[in-house]
Amino acid sequence: MTPSSPHESNRADLGKDPRRVSGMFDQVAPGYDRTNTVLSMGNDQLWRIATTRAVAPRPGQRILDLAAGTGASSVSLARSGAEVVAADFSPGMIAEGRRRHRGIPNLSFVEADATALPFADGEFDAVTMSFGLRNVDGPKKALGELLRVTKPGGRLVVCEFSHPPSRTFNGLYRFYNDRILPVVAKTVSSNAEAYDYLNESIKDWPDQRTLSAWIRGAGWADVAYRNLSFGIVALHRARKPSDAGR
Fold first, then answer.
1. b/e string for 163-183 if b means 16 or more Cβ within 10 A?
2. Strand, helix or coil at 70?
3. Which of 1, 21, 108, 240 could bond 12 through an S-S bridge, CB–CB 3.0 to 4.6 Å?
4. What is the DSSP letter of 19?
């Protein structure tokens, strides 16, 4: 995939064409992490800590961080001493991650399609994906690919936007996303239209129980989730059955 040219639309839509989504992320890569921190009011850092703790990386393990973006989540995992592969389908994000984190020896960056991962069966002790499954054209297929590249007994952690169970809080959250987020995005982002897509994709994304069912349907066991930030985000966990592939 190649980045969008200046003459093409820099905004993805719910069709989630891989080329358009990749091009959109290419264009926001340099300021992506700063923008996310502003728009989430700092909660992105708390979500990253929760995800790292759920993955529980250890020295000697090999971990795949899919949809890693510029590698902020990957660095958090690599601090444990585990060997971390940061994979993303946006060349711009991968290039920015390599530039920022080239001094970390146990962290590598790979351009990869979530629905056709360039890794061997059973290659990773744990796989994780933060705020990326929602952008995949074929999320169920991606969950199957993550299962394939995970060792029997290995772990899955997916951190993704979800739907607050409280009707009152959900109303406030929707007001923020619909009225406040677009205004802030125009101020702090180089591509405010990308965050219009973000809002649309969150609305369109299934709730916690539905995503859990998708994970279970892909072949994962011990599927569970817990809400973060009142359900704005849900942290999903699962395990590859020990007898899988035998």
1. bbeeeeeeeebeeebeeebee
2. coil
3. 21
4. H
Determine the Cα–Cα distance for residues 193 and 231; give it in Å rounded to an integer: 25
Q: Is 215 helix (H, G, I), strand (E, B) or coil?
A: helix
**Which tens digit of pLDDT belongs to each residue from 64-121?**
999 999 999 999 999 999 999 999 999 998 999 999 999 999 999 999 999 999 999 9
Helices (H), 102-244: 139-149, 167-175, 181-188, 192-204, 208-217
Largest distance between two CA atoms of the chain: 54
Contacts of residue 205, defined as CB under 8 A and 6 or more positions apart, other chains included, come to 134, 160, 161, 162, 163, 211
Using the predicted structure, report yes or no on whether residue 179 has a pLDDT greater than 90.
no
Report strand pairing: 107-111 vs 83-88.
Answer: parallel
Amino acid making up residue 223:
V
CB-based contact 130:159 (threshold 8 Å): yes
Q: How far apart are CA 228 and CA 90, in angstroms?
A: 27
Q: 3-state DSSP call for residue 30?
A: helix
Residue 140 to residues 41, 134, 219, Cα–Cα distance (Å): 30, 10, 11
Question: What is the tally of helices (H) and strands (E) in the chain?
Answer: 10, 7
Strands 221-228 and 124-130: unpaired
User: DSSP 3-state assignment of 119?
Assistant: coil
pLDDT at 192: 62
Residue 2 is encoded by which pair of tokens? 């190649």
CA dist., res. 70 & res. 56, Å (int): 21
Q: How many CB atoms lie within 10 A of CB 208?
A: 20
Q: What percent of the chain is predicted at pLDDT more than 70?
A: 82
